[in-house]
Amino acid sequence: MRFVVRLGTDCNPTFGGKSPEILTVLDTLVLSPDEVCGIVVGPNCGDPYNPLDNWNVTFPNVPQPAPVPPIPPKPGSPTLRVLHLSDTHYDAHYKAGSNANCGEPLCCRQDDGVPANTSDGAGKFGDYRNCDTPLWTLENMLQKLSAEKDTFDFIYWTGDLPAHDVWNQTRQDQLNILQHMVSLMLKYFPGKPVFPSLGNHEGAPVNSFPPPYITGKYSISWLYDALAQSWSNWLPKDVIALVQKGAYYTVSPHPGFRIISLNTNYCNSGNWWMLINTTDPTGELTWLIKTLQSAENAGEKVHILGHIPPGDQGCLKAWSWNYYRVVNRYQNIIAGQFYGHTHYDSFQVFYDETTLSKPVGVAYTAPSVTSYPGLNMGYRFYTVDGVYKGSSYQVLDHETFFLNLAKANVEGKITWEFEYSAKATYKMKSLYPSDWDNLIKVMMANQTVLETYNRLYFKSVHSGACDYTCRYARLCETRSARSSDPSLCKDLKV
Q1: DSSP code, position 233
Q2: Across the strands, what pairs with 90?
Q3: What is the DSSP letter of 96?
Q4: Residue 33: predicted pLDDT
Q5: Beta-strand relationship, 79-85 and 346-351
Q6: Closest to 396 measured CA to CA, from 429, 363, 350
Q7: DSSP state, residue 268
Q8: Contact, 173 vs 206, CB < 8 A?
Q9: Is 343 one of the annotated binding-site residues?
Q10: Domain 79-94+132-428 class?
């Protein structure tokens, strides 16, 4: 069998200028076209089989401690407040009044021209159609948050800075956006700790993140060197070499508390370089285990940041399942997981590997800043058990804020509104994994609660009634913290 690759202009938005890289990858493969299509596109396209995809991480020869449930903090205990920004997708070419129905994957841009029908014109502050974030809306949000900077302690910034014009981006374009966004963060949050992660849209082409053994013109060093320089505004010198190697790192902002930022592009099925060999690229999961074991030995609690949620269906199965094993092994010290990528507001519960019934962890997926596609804009604050001896560093509550784009465009002014508190809205005693598992059970039994979750999932854009397909999708996603595992949803009552 052989590959026949047709990459005309009709494919450009999909492949984003990848054709030379794709051909280079295909030249090295032992996979059939059917297998490649199944891996990259999904099982509806072909058989997602890769003989190099069967690998397992190795854990230290250290007995796993017995599970210890988090201990709720005493009243009046110190707390931390963390701002989570994700998926800004800043579009430097956004133009109000331009054609929002341009026929491309990204519209509302200067080159799209003025539409004949004024209803097709892009909104002043953003648009629900396939449009990204204007600079003035982005800066309005940053100005508001800057005025509140004394009310929070640090920022989790989980990637996807460029716009969605993936067919039109160059390496220099991506570097320009990176530098501009970093300058904005420094301008509005001087002296505030920022802990970044790398998104899949920072690559050029999009999703292209070759492992270190790929050298020469396809090497990723052009990006990782720039990240190391930009992120050095917030990160200590001793982690910069690791950023240059793989765009991941770990820091300890307080005694007893550690932050780990992962590069989840090595689990991305859209990263064609992973077709060559998916086995723990750059040794990232091996490094993660080593870092977590050191944290366990030192009595530290850990927050893990990344861009693509490990349970996302675009996360390669072997990487996702191995990460699930890591969370199970170190469940006592992983106090929080924070991701972006989907643009939706959601969560995913991790369960014990033996029975898939006991909750052992939870990952939060923050709402996107961008409205793409068909959403309001949003950001989130987490209240976390604070800095004191014996702190769990668990998330105690989260509060989400949003911009109602329709209202803003009609009124001609931006108003960022409080959307909801997880604890109050869902009537949760706490936000531990067991509480989120209980919420899933409540949503299975109570249509009203599920409808509320579905509305907030889309950042309060009217999404209509949640029918059976919708209910199953929302519930199954909350239980699917590892990809390609239908067994996690087999007992759902919808």
Answers
A1: T
A2: 133, 162
A3: T
A4: 72
A5: unpaired
A6: 429
A7: B
A8: no
A9: yes
A10: alpha beta
Taking the domains of the chain in order of start, what are their residue ranges? 9-49, 79-94+132-428
In angstroms, how far is CA 406 from the centroid of its own chain? 26
Please tell me whether 307 is known to bind a ligand: yes
For residue 161, the model assigns a pLDDT of: 99
What's the rounded Cα separation, in Å, for the pair 13 and 31?
A: 25
Closest to 313 in 3D by CA, of 40, 53, 13, 37: 40
Q: Which of 481, 475, 469, 473 is nearest to 449 (CA)?
A: 475
Determine whether the annotation assigns residue 200 to a binding site.
yes
Write the CA distances from 477 to 165, 357, 485, 488, integer angstroms. Answer: 28, 15, 11, 9
Amino acid in position 43: P
Q: Are 19 and 5 in contact (CB under 8 A)?
A: yes
User: What is the phi/psi pair of residue 452, to 5°?
Assistant: -65, -45
**8 A C-beta contact, residue 70 and residue 394:** yes
Q: Does 341 show up as a binding residue in the annotation?
A: yes
pLDDT of 45 reads 74
Residue 99's φ and ψ, nearest 5 degrees, are -70, 115
Residue 2, pLDDT score: 39
Write out the DSSP string of 292-332. Answer: HHHHHHHT-EEEEE-SS-TTSTTB-HHHHHHHHHHHHHTTT
Residue 63 DSSP class: P
Predicted local confidence at residue 398, as pLDDT: 99
- The separation between CA 447 and the C-alpha centre of its own chain, rounded to angstroms, equals 28
Tokens of 36: 């490649």
Count Cβ atoms within 10 A of the Cβ of residue 441 and give its class: 0-12 exposed, 13-18 middle, 19 or more buried.
Answer: exposed
pLDDT along the chain (494 residues), means of 10: 40 55 70 68 66 86 96 97 99 98 97 96 98 99 99 99 97 98 99 99 97 95 99 99 98 99 97 92 98 99 99 96 99 99 99 97 99 98 98 99 98 99 98 99 98 97 90 98 96 90
The amino acid at residue 346 is S
Alpha carbons 3 and 119: distance in angstroms, whole number: 44
Q: How do strand 334-339 and strand 249-254 relate by DSSP bridges?
A: unpaired
Number of residues that this document lists for the chain: 494
**Cα–Cα distance, 92 to 342 (Å, whole number):** 22
* Amino acid code (one letter) for 243: V
Which residues lie closer than 8 Å to 123 by C-beta, 6 or more apart?
A: 96, 100, 108, 405, 408, 409
Q: CA nearest 431: which of 363, 341, 356, 366?
A: 363
